[in-house]
Amino acid sequence: MMRVMRSPGIISLLLLLPCALAAQPDRITAPIDGGRTVVLRGNVHPNAQPRFDQGAVEPGFRVGYITLMLKKTDAQQAALEQLLQEQQDPASPNYRDWLTPEQYADRFGVSQHDLDKISAWLHAEGFTVEYTARGRNWLAFSGTAGQVRATFHTEIHRYPVDGEMHSAAAAEPSVPASLEAIVAGFMGLDDFYPKAPRHPAPDYTSATGTHSLAPGDLATIYNIGKLGIGGTGQSIVVVGQSAIDTTDIQAFRSNYNLPTLNLTPVLYGTDPKTISADMQEADLDLEWAGAVARNATLIYVYGSNVDSAVFYAIDQDYAPVISESYGGCEAQVPSQLPSLYRSRAQQANAEGITWLAASGDSGAAACDNGPKITSATQGLAVNFPASIPEVTAVGGTEFNDTIGTFWNSSNSANGGSAKSYIPEMAWNDTTAYVAAGQGLAATGGGVSSLYSKPGWQAGSGVPNGGFRDVPDLSLDASNEHDPYNAYSKGSWGLYGGTSISTPVFAGVVALLNQYLAAKGLGNINQVLYRLAQSAPSAFHDITAGNNNVPCKQGTPNCTTGTMGYSAGKGYDLATGLGSVDVYILATKWNSIPPTATTTTVTASPAIVTTGGSITLTATVKASSGGLTPTGSVSFTLGGISLGAANLVGSGSTATAPLTIAASQLNAGSNTITASYGGSTGFGVSSGSVTVNLTATLPAVNLAAITNAASYATGSVSPGENIVLWGTGIGPAQLTYGSLTASGALDTNAGNTRVLFDGVPAPVVYASDQQTSVMVPYEIAGQAFTYAVVEYQGVQSAPLLYNVSAAVPGIYTQNLQGFGPGAILNQDGVTLNGPGAPAAKGSVVAIYMTGEGQTNPAGVTGAIVPVNVQAPWKQPQLTATATVGSLPAAVEYYGSAPGMVSGVMQVNVQIPAGAASGDLPIMVTLSDPVTGLSYNTQARVTVSVQ
To answer: Given pLDDT bands bounded at 50, 70 and 90, which one contains residue 829?
Structure first.
């Protein structure tokens, strides 16, 4: 995808505009033309795999509430990050000065004109625009699969996964080139929605008796009651994926003498109707958020996709607290979504919204989440969206009440029987649940693979790594030991999981808002970590237990049969900062104003060329005193993380250097922001610097693709050796591909790469006007594919090609660098031709490509072993041959030993009755399933004696 040059003058002007004058300029400067498109990467769901593909849905299949996400400019992103810092700085005039959605739109959204143009274009394509965001940063529309294909050049296919039929985009979508600078990506091209957390029935209610939790218990254990408030005037959004029966929630409240329910359900998007597991989750969340903040208004925002419901709640600014009990493994979301979600989380924070999300219930193995899993196989992982730095991740603990007297013998009017705080350990019921065949069950926690560590995540016990740590804090969550009482679907039950500790803490945040007379607190994480150091009594440090789970030895991160993290002094990756004493937390929240800081950043050099590097140095200075600011600084470009560095210094000044590669920048002007998240005693601050990437980059123009053997144009097939034609598509001097350490053909030669739907292809050779690669087998099962050539980091415009089962062609010259590749005599050396004719009855070896997928499936770029006695990979299509007009026996059909996978060898016997002289030879590949046939070109001849 070509990068767009941005004018430094325009960026500077945007940064200087005051809020009242900050209506955004139009960024769509050319007609929205569907004839010239660009591919948007990272929008195909990881579960939409060719091995599951059942083919395209019918053209009239409805695809509802597709979300088109729009992106900020780099200057807008830098300004937003600056504002977020100021909104958390008591010394700033912007402290807790939250934005309305319309104010957000005027500063960080697209122009109204641009939004109108996009809406009109979608209408013209036949779609129905369902919703336009108040923040002017996304819109939702509905249509059919046929319209999606015609407009966005991707098909919607069916995929049966985990016993359920799903629909999803089979290839990356495209948008008109004039929208490239403004469109960030899509949601809603698939229905792989988050699953409701599991709430298995416990085997017992506690190890020592019959204790289960009522609202009064939490009020005592976490010192909530001492505040003497109930959330009057406050609102909490709970998000879900099912319609609900409010009589369940009212029955819960009546049982515990809570005030009459004040609940407003809000549907966004397609009505999911009643879904049992999701309705149960909604009941638990609404009951326990309201049990803590008993006088608060509850707003239940729901739809078919809980994440869309979150986005809608943020855009409507319904409440200053959002509770989300859903989540999933970071590795199992489309690669474009993490940046899109973080952008929405930053909008939420700018509006004063605190977004809380569950850390997950599969221990340290968030990707191994299912009722039948007894041993993790996918390695250490954390839950998303809990891992977003602008979201507060809530984990789980378990009461350790086996020694001591912590319970009264009778219950109070609101059901409570706890006497005081009860010691806690990390929640881990995995042993009991695996034994019962109910999957893993432990508090989620670990290290993000997506987000760099924010500057505020520092303190005792916080790991020194460069990535976000999860969770931030924890509350009771055990299913097995002292579970929660809840009323759902007309009956009482006992429940646990971080999907209950999360709404409980949402109720706590609502009480904080009331106590502090705040209209919202935004991202509370930096205050939590600062208080853990300055007012440690606000937290119960959890030092016992772990979130270990069994794992299969030899799989990622598994060497001993278990993997996970142990609780320990200070912060830990099982329970975060620990649980909270709500009274102390509230009364200490504003007690120690941090020392104000300023952050400046320099770049050396400020002008860089392609292939170079830049050292960014952030300097953080305290406004008073002689103490040195501590913690780390995060560096971002347009909301994308460039990395983080720790502060080192003396006196009142500290610096954090970070070296980045020029390849991380866009061509032209780049506004890089350095954000200091604060630490114990020090406030947040940020600064920015402009770096210019000035090298004149070559134009890369991809014109056509042909079969490398026959030079025929048209379709491509998996594994095919092809030649790409154009200008600037490789180095001036012909450069052959090389083998990697694993013995496969490398995907880079002479700084040239070729991508098919984002998958790199092994490069045979590369040059300025002609480059040869092997088409990745990963495109198998797709209807079409996009090819892009990248030379020295610059990409060509993509070319769309149909994918065919086979497009066979016979080599008539050597495969340079990879051995002989023509029609050979049986000795495998002598080229057959006028000087070396083939005898009648003899066998000649034909080398060809384009035969399509093999069985077993081909390995892209692999080199076939030379000691193969039988076909190493057998093509899925059968082969027949003719010499002249006579059928010829095929004695061998399979991988060509010593050559790259995708080059096939066909041994053909010259018929005894063949005429002498140069005869046409043809190989026909036939699909036994579809009955389709694919022929090589008849211009290839063999000389017969």
So the answer is: very low
